[in-house]
Amino acid sequence: MLRHHFKAMGTEVELLLEADGDDSPLFQAEDEFRRLESLLSRFQPDSELSRLNRAGEQSVGPELLELAELAVAARERTAGRFDPTVHDAIAAAGYDRSFELIDGSDCRPAATRPRCGGRVGVDRAAARVTLEPGYRLDLGGIAKGWAADRVLALLREEGPALVNAGGDVAVAGRPWPVGVDTPDGTITLELDRGGLATSGRDRRRWRQQGQERHHLIDPATALPAQGDLLTVTVAGPTAAEAEVLAKTLFLAGSAEQATAEAEALGVPAVLVTRAGATLLAGGLA
Predict the structure, then answer these.
(1) What is the phi/psi pair of residue 153, to 5°?
(2) What's the number of domains the chain is made of?
(3) CATH code, 17
(4) Where are the beta strands (DSSP E) in 90-193?
(5) How confident is the model at residue 185 (pLDDT cuts 50, 70, 90)?
(6) Which residue from 12, 171, 178, 276 puts its CA 20 to 30 A from 145's CA?
(7) Domain region containing 66
């Protein structure tokens, strides 16, 4: 088993490849992660995403075009609960720079309250993305899952593979055991294809004007989401789709509602409440 660890997209990345000898595919996979980060990061001022956010409209490469299209489609099918135009809301909450640069000091409040729900036009034929004036894109979570899927597609040509990008997991080739931490211990899920993703308020959090903030924005309020959920872990057909599902369930408003939605959709999910309870849904027992 070949293993490789590195940091990209603001998180720890782990690659596993069941193959003998040559580990060059793992380093090529790392290069691909870094290339995608240089295109899609909202923290790099010269990234393609940052240039689009400044211009409001421009021709884009195939990666940003595909990802913008996926994000817009996800917003439509989740009735706006998943929203790629939360950029200014998450920055206003204090997450306005790479997370390792948030040193724990009290973040300054925004001068004006931001909005979510801006129009995003994706013209595939012209390879052009247009943003409604006053809105910017944040593709952080879905971009991480999508990147894991892309890198997995490269590695699976060499053998069974697993890509873990900070909890966004993509697997192929054979059953892989993946652990999900809960207050009651680790639950091990076996994945032979597709992806796994977790959305939660347990890690990326800070303080603003004495109040705890986190990075999961509720588009309905343009503020960090409230509710009784701490984390939601979901299995999906891809890591990118699992990201959308996990965030959508987290924003359901309550553990009860999220559990009911996971059951109705048949989505395997592990939900942990802020009170420390662990709930299983979508066929898990």
Answers:
(1) -60, -30
(2) 1
(3) 3.10.520.10
(4) 120-123, 128-131, 161-165, 168-172, 176-182, 185-191
(5) very high
(6) 276
(7) 2-281
